[in-house]
Design brief:
164 residues
Length: 164
């Protein structure tokens, strides 16, 4: 059995132990991790183990993504609160990581686990000012495109069709 097939079979989608999810719940919502949880998936999406490329685990709360309850009076016809966000949880995670790391660009992301209350994504982030990234043609080209997560240029953004 080849390395890639072994890695793919070892980590099926959402195959994260319950103990690990319990640990992740106590962590901050945005946490930089040393190594990707699913190395095969990270490499498929462009991760390279070099300076300037790192992974951030982002927690997103599941459930109705609605506007807050209105405090003042409204006409009932204007009371549309439901389904405000037309974007996926994955795209929300990418945008939050992009806001926390403003000097870096989001390359891609993938799901690492979910439970009843949260969904966790690992987001691959590239620091465009790093010399090792500047020397790599593929990463440099990606990192030069500013605001990838907000313009729908990641795989999650293209999938939801939210490009501006």
């Amino acid at each position: 059995m080849g390395y890639k097939k072994y890695m793919r079979d070892a980590f099926q989608d959402n195959d994260v132990s319950q103990e690990r999810l319990i640990e992740w719940r106590d962590e901050p919502a945005t946490k930089r991790v040393d190594n990707p949880t699913k190395l095969h998936r990270a490499k498929q999406l462009g991760y390279k183990a070099k300076q300037g490329v790192f992974v951030v685990r982002q927690r997103v709360q599941r459930g109705g993504r609605q506007r807050k309850q209105f405090k003042a009076g409204r006409k009932s016809s204007n009371f549309g609160r439901r389904k405000v966000l037309d974007i996926s949880y994955q795209e929300v995670a990418e945008r939050r990581v992009s806001e926390v790391h403003p000097n870096c660009e989001v390359l891609n992301s993938y799901v690492v686990g979910e439970d009843g209350g949260y969904k966790w994504f690992e987001v691959i982030v590239v620091d465009s000012d790093e010399p090792a990234v500047q020397a790599d043609d593929d990463l440099r080209e990606m990192a030069e495109r500013k605001g990838r997560a907000f313009r729908g240029l990641t795989s999650a953004g293209r999938r939801s069709g939210s490009s501006n």
